[in-house]
Amino acid sequence: MPINIPDSLPASRILEQENIFVMNEARAVHQDIRPLRIAILNLMPKKIETETQLLRLLSNSPLQVDVELLLTATHASKNTPTEHLLKFYKTFDDIKDQRFDGLIITGAPVEQMRFEEVDYWPELCDIMQWSKTNVYSTFHICWGAQAGLYYHYGINKHPLESKMFGIFHHHNICPKHLLMRGFDEVFVAPHSRHTGISQEDITSEPRLELLSYSDVAGPYLIASRDNRQIFVTGHSEYDRDTLQREYTRDIDKGLAIDVPVNYFPDDDPSRTAPYQWRSHAHLLYSNWLNYFVYQSTPFDLGQL
């Protein structure tokens, strides 16, 4: 899906070098179609890295997507240049009177804290409440998925004995669900988190449907019965080297961290990890955009 983003956004140059279709603003205004409006609430510390990963997955299909980058007003980002944030990001107050076809809520490195201890939790709750009336479908990632399950359904996370860290195999248990269309029966995806969600909590909630799980990593893809809420407990958007950089960062900090599972060949950190999850990552996002946003959202967003 060609994405309409500012020409000067760093992701634009990176994606064009990867031969990914990025539509410039001048071309976008001459297309006689209603573009999909997708907001990305970026809670990750390294926002440029995360926005590039997500924009890559929102690209390369025939429809135009207009992307709005959001950050929380109640938390100061320390890992992204202030100039970048001021130029490309808006806050909830800037867009709360608008409507969007889709919203992506990213993960955040706060999963070991109680939700209520996170400084921007009240603001995030306001955004999730607003999304019920102003967004057609919301896509939650990792901690964002845990936050959404807690806020919307009262399902809490639980601490893990050790970090869920690596590439894990997942079962496609609802192959006829539109989100799973084209998925293999078994596929891999990255996880990087210290907390998890109980599979029993998901299956006992009648408003939710478990679509995919891992014998090791637990529930992976979850959808509300009306498909307005999608939850992904892992990080399909990760680059080839994201887990490697996280591993090196923790080693450099002197933290006790195991080598990522099923990641490095022969568990040797000096070797390049194969990119095993890219095709299913693209499929996941294209299925969401097609079946739960484009095919379902009203042409007039005022009807939401």
TrEMBL record:
Keyword Endoplasmic reticulum set for record: no
Compartments it resides in: Cytoplasm
Keyword entries, A-Z: Acyltransferase, Amino-acid biosynthesis, Cytoplasm, Methionine biosynthesis, Transferase
Binding site for substrate: K163, S192, R249
BP term (GO), one: L-methionine biosynthetic process from homoserine via O-succinyl-L-homoserine and cystathionine
Record field: catalytic activity: L-homoserine + acetyl-CoA = O-acetyl-L-homoserine + CoA
Stated role: Transfers an acetyl group from acetyl-CoA to L-homoserine, forming acetyl-L-homoserine.
Family statement: Belongs to the MetA family.
Designated name of the protein: Homoserine O-acetyltransferase
